[in-house]
Amino acid sequence: MPLLTHTDLQITGMHCASCSARLEKVLNQLPEVAATVNIATEKAHIAYNPDKTPLADLIKAVQGAGFDAHPLRDFAAEKQARAAAYRQEQLQFLIAVLLTVPLLVEMLLMFIGVHAMLPGWLQFALATPVQFWSGRRFYTGSWNSLRGGGANMDVLVALGTSAAYLLSCAVLLFNLDQPIYFEASATLITLVLLGKLLEARAKGKASSALEALLNLQPKLAHVERDGVMQELSVEQMQVNDVFLVRPGESVPVDGIVLEGASSLDEAMLTGESLPQSKQPGDKVYAATSNRHGLLKCRALAVGAHTQLAAIIRLVEQAQGSKAAIQKLADQISAVFVPVVVVIALLTFLIWWLMGSGFSTALINAVAVLVISCPCALGLATPTALVVSSGRAAQAGILVKDAAALERAHKLSVLIVDKTGTLTDGTPSVTDVLPMPEVAATEFLQTAAMLAQGSTHPLSRALLDYAQSRQITPAQNANISELSGHGLHAEVDGKRYLLGSPNYATSEGITVDEQQILGLQQQGKSVIALACDGTLLGYIAFADQLRASSCAAVARLAAMNIRVVMLSGDNQATAQAIARQAGITEFRAEVLPQDKAAQVQSFKANGQLVGMVGDGINDAPALAAADVSFAMRSGSDIAIEAADITLMRNDLMSVADAISLSHATLRKIRQNLFFAFAYNVLGIPLAALGMLNPVIAGAAMALSSVSVVSNALLLKRWQRQV
């Protein structure tokens, strides 16, 4: 399988779910192309083989389907283009209103018994520009849709309004004894244009979270080059540039503090409302706000490599992806328009054959055409996902794809890695217990020598402890590590071992089980140091439970989610930590390579399994889980493998993500129910002659707006503090 290239195209000309479904089908028929098209964001995310299908062919295929496409421009340019298109639509609508109002007044006067008819030729003069200038988008859209082998909402509007308009022209031209319906066709087009304007405005609000993120980064930075402080655009900054952040300013790029002290508001990054103190050696991130104090920093990441850029990419990726629940709406939308056209034809024939007259039959058929709305179906899911993924990013929850957000609310089991997830992940030495005949300094020197050969958190904690005691490790030896067990080395003909008590025992070293158990029951991890099969002593470590872990576990339990802790520690230590966190189910002495198997064992029982981790050794388990969560403090590999990245290193964020998943699915179901109910009730009423075409048009216009507005209510969702 060749390596595919990924690209996003901005699509113009889509008006409803039928458009996005047809375009998706056209693109996926191309050689080695996999595309998803999102009606809410008006983007196509495409994976393709440029050797088989070049980018130019993708754009040509989009144009052949009746739309237009271009590679994504920067956000400001895209926003400017959308604003220009919106102004053009406003002009078309305003002219339609001015020409339709006299016709509408005439119709309204009839409801109160005043029959003051405008001359037929004047009605024709007013309705014609509305039909063919303001409403030309419906004819263009219909032609492009039919030329592309499908039918969309434009076909319904064009058919319905043209039927009313042409009938009125025939009555006027041939002086037939029939009423004329110029006011109906003009009013329908005006109402649909109003609906489209309101829909576009609401969709713009749905993406406001992403726009807010993009606007956070300052445009200028104070950069020191060649000993001179310069004001440069952020785009000109390079890695290792030294820059200043003054009080009240935002950090321009990711960096590390060289001088100064302050506190930064990182709410946009982590969702954490409390300012975070910064000292020399601490990292700072682009777009975070400096509350007080002058900071001198060195740039570590610029441009597309900053945390802010990564957040924006993930939000865009999530907003462009599809949830499984969307498939139902897509399948219905694909056949919706042809079915509605058939129903309209049957309505016309039945009413005509029943002797109700040509005009009555036609008007009822027109009402069927204009009340049908595939837009509401198509917008029900993507708009909710656009709003929720943006809201999630504001709360420090980065969703990689919509399917993960959809699945999260169904989780029945959540597997939690202990170190760095339930705990702070920074263990510290609590007890140094050399044997009576072993000098403490020599003991620590030897232990630190072995610890130099490992990146394990306990090894780092041991080295930090030795450094704090001004103890320099002995010579660097040829050290070997057995993952999950310990270290060994040979120095001057002696064989040293540093590792778990079980590892020491397996190597024939006698340990004091009771002393070790006493430490482990306090929630401490214990390692043993030995030389040539003789025990030299023990070192105990403690990793503090995160302050919010207990509350998070209780909240997850209230959601009927089984929380299972995995730990490489022995049974007693794991049990002590689990008890402190309020977890009743745990697995101890789990080796890194066995974590994925633990996930699979729960999945084998038919349960939907989530996994929370932060380390490199968690990546296989994260990939195996149905929904995976990675702490921001974790490794890049873990974050890459996870579906959802938590910018706050806090288990409570997992509960927040699941809560948002519940809220999002609730909105999607509400939207789908409304869209289905609207069409299921509206079409029969129109077919039975119980709806005037103008009322039907108003209902159709408002249906899409109501679906998008309902999705916007997700902005009210709040994470639990």
Give the tags.
19% strand, Calcium-transporting ATPase, cytoplasmic transduction domain A, alpha+beta, six-stranded antiparallel beta sheet, 26 helices, seven-stranded mixed beta sheet, 26 strands, 721 residues, Alpha-Beta Plaits
Oligomer: single chain
Please report which band the strand proportion falls in: under 5%, 5-15%, 15-25%, 25-35%, 35-45% or over 45%.
15-25%
- CA-atom Rg in angstroms: 33 Å
Shape: elongated
The pLDDT mean sits at 82
Instruction: List unreliable stretches of 5+ residues.
Output: none
- Main sheet characteristics: 7 strands, mixed
Coarse structural class: alpha+beta
Strand line-up across the major sheet: 14-26-25-24-15-22-23
- Helices, by number, come to 26
**Approximately how much helix is present in the residues?**
40-55%
Please indicate the count of domains: 5
The overall strand count is: 26
Our measurement of the CA-to-CA distance between the termini, rounded to an integer number of angstroms, reads: 47 Å
Account of the protein in words:
The chain contains 26 helices and 26 strands. The protein starts with a strand and ends in a 9-residue tail after the last helix. By secondary structure, the chain is an alpha+beta fold.
Fold topology:
Layout (H helix, E strand, L loop, with lengths): L4 E8 L4 H12 L4 E6 L4 E6 L6 H10 L3 E4 L3 H37 L8 H15 L1 H12 L5 H22 L7 H25 L1 H9 L3 E6 L2 E6 L8 E4 L8 E6 L2 E4 L1 H4 L5 E3 L4 E2 L4 E4 L2 E7 L5 H14 L5 H28 L4 H14 L2 H21 L2 E3 L2 H7 L4 E5 H5 L5 E7 L5 H12 L5 H12 L9 E5 L3 E6 L2 E6 L1 H6 L6 H8 L4 E7 L2 E9 L6 H10 L3 E5 L4 H11 L3 E3 L7 H9 L5 E5 L5 H6 L2 E5 L4 H6 L2 E3 L5 H36 L5 H20 L9
Parallel strand pairs: 15-22, 15-24, 22-23, 24-25, 25-26
Antiparallel strand pairs: 1-3, 1-4, 2-3, 5-6, 5-7, 7-13, 8-11, 8-13, 9-10, 9-12, 14-26, 16-21, 17-18, 18-19, 19-20, 20-21
